[in-house]
Amino acid sequence: GDADEMWKFARASGLEATVWRDPGGLRSGAIGAVSLPLTVVLDKNGHVVWRRDGPIELDDAKMIRALTGTK
Predict the structure, then answer these.
(1) What is the pLDDT of residue 1?
(2) How far apart are CA 15 and CA 41, in angstroms?
(3) 64/70 Cα distance (integer angstroms)
(4) Which partner for 3 in 16, 18, 19, 52 could form a disulfide, CB atoms 3.0-4.6 Å apart?
(5) Residues 69 and 50: beta-carbon distance below 8 Å
(6) How many CA atoms lie within 13 A of 25 on its CB side?
(7) Calpha distance 18→6 (Å, rounded)
(8) pTM higher than 0.70
(9) Is 8:18 a contact under the CB 8 Å cutoff?
(10) 44-65: per-residue pLDDT in tens?
(11) Rounded distance between C-alpha atoms, residue 61 and residue 25, angstroms
């Protein structure tokens, strides 16, 4: 599934990643999800540095910069 692809991407990129699923939608509303899937990149302090509501491409340049901490 999509979570498996994200894990493969993270491992290949040398990144730590956590993939959360919310099948009942209980937490989606609490974080203001407008659509699913929702992808959020947090910095080491838990601040959102990148967010995408809806499908993503694993080669999205802005997401990669957020994941790697590059400008």
Answers:
(1) 55
(2) 11
(3) 8
(4) 19
(5) no
(6) 7
(7) 9
(8) no
(9) no
(10) 898 889 999 888 888 889 988 8
(11) 28
